[in-house]
């Protein structure tokens, strides 16, 4: 799981490799004190017997209890340039979250709405609004197929109701992001938009 990124990005001159021991310390339940109130699960995607993607699903039970939420998030998502691979990875986390009784997925990261810029941007089909629309479409399709509740007692879809993200950066908050908030029914109407400056005059 940790080593996959070193293979995936070895030819990318902009990639900064993480410290392996730090990654392991973060991901291991016996090393990271956050696991006292969090749970996580990790998946690898394979194609032709080769690892082609990875993703982690995380649930912070203390956060959910304090704010009366049923929220999960995903991270450590890396994959080859293959839409089917990325879709299956995200779908796996969504299914896991729903099995755990969650109804909201949070996309978490610094400048999360800058996603895709280093991968070619909109022209290459890589942008945060494109990702949000893909998540909405995926959740809609999962509902249409019909998903039983975790007990298996009902065939009524128990869909992923809400999609949330934090934190977004002002410089990448363009009209296509605003359009997402106007058009995507599952996207939470909430923005965390940090504004900061070293200048008192600007602030």
Overall geometry comes to globular
Strands, count: 5
Largest sheet: 5 strands, mixed
- Number of alpha- plus pi-helical segments: 6
* Helix/sheet category: alpha/beta
Percent of residues in helices: 25-40%
Rounded to an integer, what's the Rg over CA atoms? 18 Å
Low-confidence stretches: 148-155
Provide the residue-averaged pLDDT.
84
Give the ordered list of helices and strands: HHEEHEHEHEH
CA-CA gap between termini: 43 Å
Q: Mind sketching the topology for me?
A:
Elements: H1 4-8, H2 20-27, E1 38-47, E2 50-60, H3 61-67, E3 71-79, H4 83-99, E4 104-108, H5 128-145, E5 162-166, H6 175-183
Parallel strand pairs: 3-4, 4-5
Antiparallel strand pairs: 1-2, 2-3
Characterization of the model:
Helix 5 (128-145) links the parallel strand 4 and strand 5. 32% of the residues lie in helices and 20% in strands. Strands 1-2-3-4-5 form a five-stranded mixed beta sheet. Helix 4 (83-99) crosses helix 5 (128-145). The chain is α/β, with parallel strands linked by helices. Mean pLDDT is 84; it is low at 148-155.
List keywords for this structure.
five-stranded mixed sheet; alpha/beta; 203 residues
Briefly say what this structure is:
The protein is α/β, with parallel strands linked by helices.
